[in-house]
Amino acid sequence: MNRAWRPIRTLLGLLLRRPIVGTSVIPRLPSGEIVLIRRRDSGRWGLPGGIIDWGEDIAAAARRELAEETGLHVTSLGRLVGIYSHAERDPRFHAICIVIEAQVEGSFHIQDVAEVMEVKAFSADAIPKEALAHDHGQQLQDYFQGATILA
User: Fold this and answer.
1) Is residue 115 in some structural domain?
2) Cys bridge to 52: 6, 13, 61, 118, which one at CB 3.0-4.6 A?
3) Is residue 119 one of the residues assigned to a domain?
4) What is the arithmetic mean of pLDDT over 45-69?
5) 26 CB contacts (<8 Å, ≥6 apart)?
6) Can you state the percent helix, strand and coil of the chain, rounding each to 5?
7) What's the domain count of the chain?
8) 144: closest CA among 2, 21, 6, 32?
9) CATH number, domain at 76?
């Protein structure tokens, strides 16, 4: 019996012990302000984003997550800011985050009320750096410095 379960345990280990891949969007309004969400799980501010769904590419996931969490839509995707893969960057699980910038427009409307408490636009100097979730402070710093990061 133990021998029969070995391939199943091996397969489950391969499937379940992998980092989760997601995306964060740095949304910039025409005014130049950056849009952040206040997360329901921690009360901290963060970039809109989430897990890439099966069959979805990064750009589609970024557009979907932005719309669900802020009500905004992408007018153009910008540069790749970075790929952040440090195992402790997200306290919930090992997650690889692909961060892209986007020009956005529309009005705020939270569709995903289970995850998002508030949406707000900030000028670069008014971003609440001490109250940011995960490693979003680093992501924003890299963005404002014009860097492209593999971390």
Assistant:
1) yes
2) 61
3) yes
4) 97
5) 34, 47, 81, 99, 100, 101, 102, 139, 140, 143
6) 30, 35, 35
7) 1
8) 32
9) 3.90.79.10
Contact 127, 35 (CB under 8 A): no
pLDDT of 6 above 80? no
- 46 by DSSP, 3-state: which? strand
Q: Which residue has the tokens 């009320």?
A: 113
Residue 14 resides in a domain: no
Distance CA 132, CA 17 (A): 27
Strand blocks (E) in 56-115: 73-84, 95-105
Please report the pLDDT score of residue 89 as a whole number: 84
Q: Please give the single-letter amino acid code of residue 91.
A: P
Instruction: Check whether 58 has a pLDDT greater than 60.
Output: yes
Considering the domain boundaries, does residue 11 fall inside one? no
